[in-house]
Amino acid sequence: MPNSHLFKPLNIRKTTIRNRIWVSPMCQYSVDEHDGVPHDWHLVNLGQTAAGGAGLVFTEATAVSPEGRITSEDTGIWNDEQARAWARVVKFLHSQGASAGIQLSHAGRKGSDYKLFTDKCGTTKPVSEGGWETVAPSPLAYPGFDIPKELDWEGIDAVVDDFAAAAQRSRESGFDVVEIHAAHGYLIHQFLSPLSNERTDDYGGSLENRSRLLLRIIAAVREAIGEEMALFVRFSATDWTEGGWDEHQNATVAAWCREAGADFFDISSGGIINGIFISVEPGYQVPLAEHVGRHGEVDVAAVGLITTPAQAEEIVASGRAEAVMLGREMIRDPHFALRAAHELGEEIDYWTRQYRGAVYQTAVLAESSRGGE
Hints:
Blueprint: E1 10-12, E2 15-17, E3 21-23, H1 40-51, E4 56-63, H2 80-95, E5 99-105, E6 135-136, E7 149-150, H3 153-173, E8 177-182, H4 187-192, H5 207-210, H6 212-225, E9 230-236, H7 247-260, E10 264-268, H8 286-296, E11 300-303, H9 309-317, E12 323-326, H10 328-332, H11 336-343
Parallel strand pairs: 3-4, 3-12, 4-5, 5-8, 6-7, 8-9, 9-10, 10-11, 11-12
Antiparallel strand pairs: 1-2
């Protein structure tokens, strides 16, 4: 049995995840063909973290429809060609012993953006340049973007259907985990937050109404993937401003989500408005995950400036979260899990064959018969 909490396997429904070091969804904006099909970059980018020992590897935010993309360069899973391309990625992740997760997303009013790190990023790309009309719960623009179209009930039904169809394709592609993206100011978060939802019908006003879309999507996705597959939800636990969504509402809704069929909750924060000062420090979002987990009585993963094995181990060992999600640190060190095992004194059996010559040693070894480094 592992000595460290970080390397204890975790069972969620029929999936056994080999450790608690997980790769957070990270947008790549790399589909230059604008067809939503993942390609070699996505295989290599995700595959290196699986070879590096991560337990669960998530795709970037993957759109459930063309208009659900953040940018034209996002991946999607609204058609079979995209699903087949993702199956190739999943096959490699599994070959390295990692579990494979896909994050399903709809950008809502933050869609039709220009590619990140370009001059026009943060503004709406017009239809004439390959953009599209965006939608939202209310005709309230995200700063810098065009005013979105308010979704009517038929449009809401279509969004639910799109998530269910994408989840079905995800299951057929071999993914172990489906995650519904309800964070970072995208469509579902737009419904949850009073700052972006001014509806007066069954999808606005009370907490129950603002949560209705998410709960419908969870039910539809659960039906699409069956009872064996794990279902996660990513939340922004707070909008970091008075009158917005907060961790107390989040804890309540997370409990409702669990009753509707969700298994696990990935807790981040922010994204519904810009210009908000956030005091960022190592592990700054861990208390949010701890609050949602404790008060919602749900299992959570923590994310946010988790950068060292000792820090990650403390978060899990203390019970503040069941797992940690790493983003930027995984970019800097795709083999973080292998290094963590060494630093924590943990013996693991999943150094990939090609990397075994680099296994950490406590002493300098003599040059082998096959030649030194």
